[in-house]
Structures are given as C-alpha cells and as structure tokens.
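Feature request, filed as a ticket because there's no other form

It would be nice if the structure record came with a short human-readable summary line next to the tokens. Right now we just get the raw output. Example of a typical job, pasted below so the devs can see what we mean:
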Amino acid sequence: MLKKIDKYIIKQLLATFFLAIALIVLIVIVFDISEKLDDFLEKKAPIQEIIFTYYLNFIPYFVNLFGHLFFFIAVIFLASKMSSRSEIVAILSSGISFKRFLRPFILSSIIVALLNVYLTNVLIPQVNKPRIEFEQTYWRNPYKNLTFNIHVKTDSVNHVYVQSFNNFNQTGYRFTKETFCEKGICKKITAQNIVYDSIKKNWTLIDYKVRTIDGLKESLVTGDKAVMNLGIKPEDFNIVTAKVETMTFTELNDFIDSETKRGSKDINLYLIEKYQRLFNPLAFIILTIIGVSLSSRRTRGGTGLNLAFGITIAFSFIMMMKVTSVFSTKGNLHPIISVLIPIFVFAIISVFLIKKAPK
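Raw output as currently delivered:
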C-alpha cells in the first residue's frame, strides 16, 4: 500500500513532469506557428484544421518524442528540491532506506513508461496520419523520391532495379527486371524508361529489350514501346516514403515481414523502430534511478548544478542511442543489440550510483 510519502512524491513528480511538458509544448507551438505562418497563409490552411488537425495531434507526438528527457529533468528537479530542503536527510534519518525512498520514483516512472508504450504503439500512429497529411497539404512540398539505385525483390524469383523513380509522373529510369530459375537467370527485361498507367494498372516500357534464356537457347526481342504487367506498383519504389510512425505495432510487424520478403535494404531501420518501441520504456526507470541517486546528495551547486549534470547524462544517453543505430543501419550490428546497448550501459551506471547514494 502507498504511504503518505509515496503519494507525496508521486503527486509532485507527475505534476512537475506534466507541467514542464505543457510549458515546453506551448513554447514550441508558438515558434512553430511563427515559422510556418507564411506557408499556412499562402496555401489558405483553415484555422480549424490548423488547431484541431495539426497542433492537437502534434501534442502527443511531441510528448512522446521528448518524454524521456523531461521526465528525467522532473526527477532531478524534485530530488534536488527535496535535498535542498533537507527532506531527504529527514526521511533517511527516520529509518527509511534509500531503496524504500526510491520506490515512489520508480512507480511514477513505470506509470509514465506504460503511457509511453500506449502512445508509441497505439495512439501516436493514429494521430500522425492526419498530422502528416496536413503537413503535405499546407506546409511541405510534395514528396520527391530522392533515392537512387533502388533494388526491389518482388518475390522469390523476380528482382527489379531502377536507377531512379519520379513520383510525380510515375516514371522509372534505367529499368531492369530479372527472373531466376534453377540454373540462373532465365529472363531479363530492360528498358530506358517505364511509365505507370494508373487507370489500366500496367506499365509502358520505352526502348525495351526482353531476353529469354532456355538452356542453350536464347531469344531477344527489342522495340520502342510495349505495354506489360510487371507485377510491381509505383509505391514499391517509394521505400523512403514508408511512414513507420503512422503504423501501430501490429502494422509495423506486418510491414517488416513484407519488406523482408522484398529484400529491402532498410529492414534494419524498421527493426530498430520495432525494438525501440519495446525496450525504450525501460529508459524511464533507469534514468529515474540515475536522477534520484545523483540529486539526493546535497551539493554546493544546488538544483542548477544537478540539472546541468542530469541534462548532460540524458543527452549522452540519446547520443549513444543514435550512434548504435547508425552501427546497425550502416554496419553489421544486430538491431536488437543496437537498441539494448545504451539501456544496458546506463543500467550498470544506475547500479553503481545506487551504491554511492546517501544511506
């Protein structure tokens, strides 16, 4: 059962966290409006959509994005405040152990971590869809596919390549499709350009060649223009347009399965997103332990010094997450390991700081 001290700390900590988030959200919205106001006026964005479609859906996205940082700051602020008022000394002198004093902080971090799980996997993917659509309509320029040398594995035997793909006119340049049999390539289609017909659902090949290989026999058909069903759609080339932030956890799993079958080169990026949704909530608990352990000891610098040191640790954690993610996307590090390394390292730091905390 929760004691008075537990209720006091949980109430103060959650109130500090939500107040800090509310204030920073208001500040960010003000700056965001000033930056995008010209685009909104130029494209005649309705005020109702600006408020309810964009900024109302922006709030949970922002809270989730910076939740770790501001909860950590709230922990350090509250613990430092209690330490400066000698409340922690009085609590520990009354016979309460540091681990028992830590309990309400950890309970609060678990509450926020569960909220983070819900936001990341359920609510935010739903609110991101109208927010992103609004941005594409009234703020951002239409999406341009800037990816070159796109390789797509449509199924187990067909591999497709385009040097580049234009979303506006649905045209691919320097196209190649290879069909594999037991003995190797049995069919190869190349074309200078391919153009998709969205009404007939087929492709027009310009300056094409179709090479068919059957053992020792080989045939070649060439032409200026031909209409074919290539078994692929324009969105299959838009690998970078995959908005994983608009997918629930179940949708993300299904998307990863389909991208794995296609042989997507960005599969590690999607796996990192999946594992971050699973394991990043643990960061709330670990950072809470670090924050309380650091701030419970009274120092000459007071709350300001503790906040500066805490923010440095929080950004170090975020930086390590980014670095290990790069090792996974650009190197051979497994995605789950890249996500767990920062958590494991800071978990060790938290254990060390608990041992050094005042008793």
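Something like this underneath would help us a lot:
The radius of gyration is 27 Å.
The chain has ten helices and six strands.
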